Amino acid sequence: MPSSGGEGAAGIGEGHVSWSGLGCIAVGAVFGYGSHVYKREGIRLRSIPRYTDFRLLERDLMAAAGVAAAAAQTVDVTNPRQSQSQSPSPGMLVAVSGAATADTLVKCLHSRQSDGAPQTCIYYDAVSEQHLARQTDRGEWIRDSAVVSHMTAESPVWQLEDGTGGAVNMHRATAFGQYSDAARAGEWTLQPAFDHFKASGNDRGVVHSFLDMHKGLKVLGMRHRERVIPQGTTLTAVGEVTMARIRE
């Protein structure tokens, strides 16, 4: 009997699965797959042509348009109407770098220029935070903050310009409050333009201060921050670019 019990124990040991070990293998496989995908994506992005002279970009786009137009003239014998109705709109996946410019700029609320006029920018991001001190059950005071307002604005039309006078249109709003793809992605670095903390002081009055203290709350003040993309900032955009059709 003891020998049979030993064999049974050995059988259970051979069929045992370590779930923690399996989890480590699965997570490792996911990370391995992710790193492989990111590496492949990085190689693909490095192979994208980069343009800083938009005259060369226009030349390559016109060449691609010529190839597409020649291919469109080939009529499908089985369905000639479908081939004739197709209007080629060739595009190229490129990276373009240039200075961001716009005719209509956004005005900052707090940031000022040297002459006192509001600072202008292509993209504007403003956040107002209320800073508080809360008292815990043990009598300790902990600093906290809450966002009171958050506002963003973007120039309705802006483009990237190179040093030769060429321009690539980046955003042309067709409706009020419409943002560009870059603004919606939020992957660009904004420059700090204004950061000021205004202490509450005694402007809240004695009654408000007493009520705040009774609730274990101290209003420390308001912090206003503004971050912008100024006119002339060098930006790099990656995406599909096409030739604009000029209407006569």
Automatic annotation (TrEMBL):
| Enzyme class, first EC level, given as a word | transferase
Q: What is its EC number?
A: 2.3.2.27
The source's domain of life comes to: Eukaryota
Cell location: Membrane
The UniProt catalytic activity note for this protein reads: S-ubiquitinyl-[E2 ubiquitin-conjugating enzyme]-L-cysteine + [acceptor protein]-L-lysine = [E2 ubiquitin-conjugating enzyme]-L-cysteine + N(6)-ubiquitinyl-[acceptor protein]-L-lysine
Recorded GO terms, molecular function? ubiquitin protein ligase activity; zinc ion binding
One GO cellular component this record assigns the protein to is:
membrane
- Membrane topology note: Multi-pass membrane protein
Which GO BP terms, alphabetically? protein ubiquitination
Q: Which residues form the E3 Ubiquitin ligase MUL1-like domain?
A: 130-242
Q: What keywords were assigned to this record?
A: Membrane, Metal-binding, Transferase, Transmembrane, Transmembrane helix, Ubl conjugation pathway, Zinc, Zinc-finger
Q: Which InterPro entries match?
A: MUL1-like, SP1/SPL1
| One Pfam family hit | GIDE
UniProt name for this protein:
RING-type E3 ubiquitin transferase
Whose protein is this, by species? Mantoniella antarctica
